[in-house]
Specification:
The chain is mainly alpha-helical. A hairpin with a 5-residue loop joins strand 5 and strand 6. Helix 4 crosses helix 16.
Length: about 375
Amino acid sequence: MTHLGRFTWELSRLKFPLIGSILEQDDGGYNVEDCLSPGYIFHGREDLEDVPRGPFSQESIYYSSLASALLLQAEQLPMQHHILFAPLPVPQEYPDYATFYLAQMLWNDYAAVGNKPESSSNRMAYSLAAYYLRGEIVSHVNLPQSETSLGYPLCHHDLSTQNIFVDGDFNITCVIDWAFSSTVPLAQLLSTPGLPHPRDLTTDAALVHAFRSGFVEEAAKHNLPLPGWRHWEISDMVSRFMLLVRFDALQDYHHLHSLHQLAFGRSSSETDSLLAKLREISIHPDLLALSKTLQADDEPESEIKRRKTEYFSAVGKERLALAESIMQLSRPDPFFVVDKGVWTKLLDGYPVNTSGATTAEEAERQMAILRAHIGDILAAGFPQ
């Protein structure tokens, strides 16, 4: 990670007047043109007509355009595995492989009821998030104009373990696959790379320190200005912002919540919470109109029922009953978050033993035990 910090410093020295992709011209020169980075072309976004693509002369317009791309994703394009208020389980949240595996299966069941990813309620949730990012967050992630006047550095955008070559001593020898590279605001370049994949957020303090130390050491070696604390603070926000707008992460709600706290502080006031902000946005006339439009585009009830029947005929009616009971939590409160707390409460309180299960087959046996007790679980009042 220290070497990546040094590599990033080298990129920071390549400054261009605009934010966009660098394209070679017929005369052998280069121009900064429309931005072809992942946030503008992944997930079918290359066909969206109403997304400003640059080149951009201001950071705020660039960030706002990415939030607009997320909004149009929610309105028009497939939502894949994304459910804003039901973040996917990830291994780091659970004590062992089997518990994580069971949480994944329970999440799949929950997502299958009502085809949640593609539902108008989920699309509306992401629309609210996009409005929130554009209206509340963009102003917090801009560096002063006096600093951006020096130009915008080059960013790789796809730093993964597959694209980084190292020697026997783990020194970086080359970085490949620059297809999505573009110029970016400095704070975006300063974001600690997510490894092994760009969708991963690096939160380990030692890794973050190593990356930043590599950058600072290289800058100091050349007697050049060092980033201040505000640069690093904004880079923390930008890393989460980019995960959200690129639509490539697994736990969008947690990234959004963390971003809110970084921007506004960890206030204990309910009126200042992220969910309070989203509720406030939801009653804006534009959002109320959008909600009706999205509802009109929902799949027919017959198709939703067919999908549900097909899925649960394979995993069992007991798991359907459990998934529907969990779904009841969000009926009175559409902003209820179904996350690790729900799955942990279920798995910790009932007769499954995951400690010795290290394979998918062993985890499936524990799921069979859980399935056999679902009737008792519901009779006992879960998920209240």
